[in-house]
Amino acid sequence: MEANGQARPRLAFVVIGSIAAAMLAAGIALGLRVSGNDTVVLPGAVTYSEAVAGTWQRVNPLFAGANEVDADLSALVFSGLVRAAKDGKVIPDLAADLPEISDGGTTYTFRIRANARWHDGEPVTSRDVAFTVRLLQDPDFDDPAMAEGWNGVTVETPDDSTVVIRLRQPSAPFLSRSATVGILPEHLLGGKGAQALESDPFNARPVGSGPYRLESLDAQAATLAANTSYYLGRPGIDRIVLRFYPDEPQAIRAFAAGETDGVYLRGPRTRAELDDVREVGGKQVSVATRPVLAMLYLNNSNSLFRDERVRQALSLAVDRKQLLDEVFQGVGTATASPVVPGTWAYDPDADVIAPDLSRARVLLQEAGWTPHPTTGILVRQGQEFRFTIRTDNAPERVALANAVARQLEPLGIRASVASTTFSVLRRDFLQERKYEAAVVFWDQGPDPDLYFGWHSSQLGAAGLNLANFEDAVIDDLIARGRTSTDPEIRLDTYRQIQDVWQGIQPSLVLGATGAVVVHPGWLRNAEPGVLFTSASRFVDVHRWAR
After folding, report:
1. Which is one Pfam family of this protein (predicted)?
2. 361 pLDDT exceeds 80?
3. What is the longest distance spanned by two Cα atoms in the chain?
4. Nearby residues of 278 by Cβ (< 8 Å), 6 or more positions away
């Protein structure tokens, strides 16, 4: 756990829960209608329906990290003090404005909107925020990544509308990574701890302050009605229906058969499945960038990769657009930048993705690598340029590793691919840094802070600096970017990091993964931005309209 209390980004190895178990949990509320909801849907009301893979378990923002459908529903039902906009900038939500920041960046003062109301009509107050933070800090709360952002944080409530949050150390990522958490109603849940809340009936009959209120929920679908008292204005779509399917292929078939207006596809799909989606008439098909970077980690302590000219050469040998098309069917974004494309800190001018084999060969020769006259394999001081790319057994990661290996062959570099379970990969190779290269997906999240992955303090088995990378300039820039609360200083800092990165290539960013969002042609203002989570597609749902 990091001393400054800032939640760290996660390695994005997706753990898929049992659909059968989820269906069983949902079955408890089969046919359940949410009480206390006086929403009236008038004739001619506008309804949007969407097919999603999976089903609900607990509609509660504190548990949304364990289930993406729960996260979707929580994003519609609940609100945080602030939220991440489509480009990752932090914008007000329950708070009327961005917070006042004082005491050297450690004190955040929020003021809750006067017209913020729970779905039952009660006002949202500072006590609700303090109650939610107490739950996050409860020793029984079972999401370490979410809890870590609140470690050591204190909350004061001088009046009903004012919340003062004090951090132990300055942390600019606090707003986007922690203050966006959905707030829970103290007047309905007060006195309950995190453990009791896990099985509380509230999770099937949630009362939030967000743009939609839950109208009905069962194993097949969730129906949500527009919150007519929403503080940002009544949503333009009267009703949203999320229909649940066991997996994405079944969701695609249901959408293609006309069962829903739209479909959301989180995972890699075959070209045939994507063609089925694109062939449905009258639809808008969007490929949204996710902040999950596909990485070829290079162990900088290995003799093969200590020379930055070698790392630059490998980057110049990789055709990222071809990788994107071959492995991910074009669903994603070709990039070599550690800052996610489409976000506020991204600099397209510092993102070099075009392959250049001629320049790569020059750099390798300068580093002492020359082709063997018989085999063509690069040799330096009698050593052939051969290494192993480690990865886990996920098909897309194995395919990506093999594709990278093939692209390095024209340079005279021979890479073999070895896959294993993720637990073995992490324990025996990554954590101990006993690998040469590895294909790993890194979830950067909504903030460009690179501390956990690339600062030298994160070297060693306890840290996440998997590349064994150390650079004083990068260290200084990372420290400045994560402690300054001035947006212009942060922007300049991350632009400098991207520029330096291209020259030293600590490891290879191969691309940003993506998701497919399909909406009907009549739905306006629903274009997705960067999907920091799947639920980010609903960030401006109150602006959607026909």
Report:
1. SBP_bac_5
2. yes
3. 81
4. 285
Other C-beta atoms closer than 10 Å to the C-beta of 256 total 16
Q: What is the mean pLDDT of residues 242-250?
A: 97
3-state secondary structure 436-468: CEEEEEEECCCCCCCHHHHCHHHCCCCCCCCCC
* 76 touches 225 (CB < 8 A): no
CA distances from 298 to 60, 309, 311 (A): 39, 13, 8
| Beta-carbon count within 10 A of 424 CB | 14
Q: Which range, of 217-231, 246-260, 262-276, averages the lowest pLDDT?
A: 262-276
Tell me the C-alpha distance between 367 and 412, whole Å. 14
Which amino acid, residue 370? T
Q: Tokens for 142, please give them.
A: 């079972």
CA dist 388 → 298, 326, 402, 418 (Å): 11, 21, 11, 7
What residue type is assigned to position 398 of the chain?
V
Q: CA-CA distances (angstroms) from residue 207 to 32, 50, 69, 80? A: 15, 22, 17, 14
Question: Does residue 13 carry a pLDDT above 70?
Answer: no
Residue 483 contacts residue 511 (beta carbons within 8 Å): no
Question: Residue 173 corresponds to which amino acid?
Answer: P
Which conformational region is residue 390 in: left (phi greater than 0), alpha (psi within -120 to 50 degrees), or beta? beta
DSSP-derived pairing of the beta strands 414-420 and 212-217: unpaired
Q: What span, in angstroms and rounded, lies between the C-alpha atoms of 5 and 108?
A: 15
pLDDT tens-place string over residues 170-201: 999 999 999 999 999 999 999 999 999 999 99
Strands 162-166 and 107-111 turn out to be antiparallel
Q: Which residues are within 8 A (CB) of 24 and not within 5 positions of it... i.e. 6 or more apart? A: none
How far is 197 from 182, CA to CA, in rounded Å?
A: 15
310 vs 300, 303, 378, CA distance in Å?
11, 10, 12
Q: Which amino acid is residue 242, in one-letter code? A: L
Task: Decide if 93 contacts 71 (C-beta within 8 A).
Answer: no
